[in-house]
Amino acid sequence: MSSSSKILLAITLLSFMLMMLPNQEIVHAQYATVNETLTSVYDNLLSGVKAMVDKFLTGIQETLIYVIHRGVEVLITVARASYVALGLLGLVLWATGASPYRGRHLIVGSIILAIIAEVASGLLG
Question: Angle between the 24-96 and 100-124 helix axes, to the nearest 10 degrees?
Fold first, then answer.
């Protein structure tokens, strides 16, 4: 085989191979499709993670609100028992004359505690 026929054969094979390569538009279309699929998967994954984080934080928020609400209810109950006990003790000390000054202060303190407890109870609903 002569060198010119070898060159011609090489050019023919190269031309044939170039014709077999995919068209650039097809390659770009396939790339765009893969890119859209990956973007869609990423967006779905991200929205799922966001939903899980929102659900978790909402659960924590509801739990904290419940704990604070119950804590205030307990404090109001303790305050009610305390102002009744302080008021009765103050009344006894003041009425018997055993310690009228201290009894009067206990009565005033129980009134203040009663106001605070009942206002907090009204705010709590």
Answer: 150
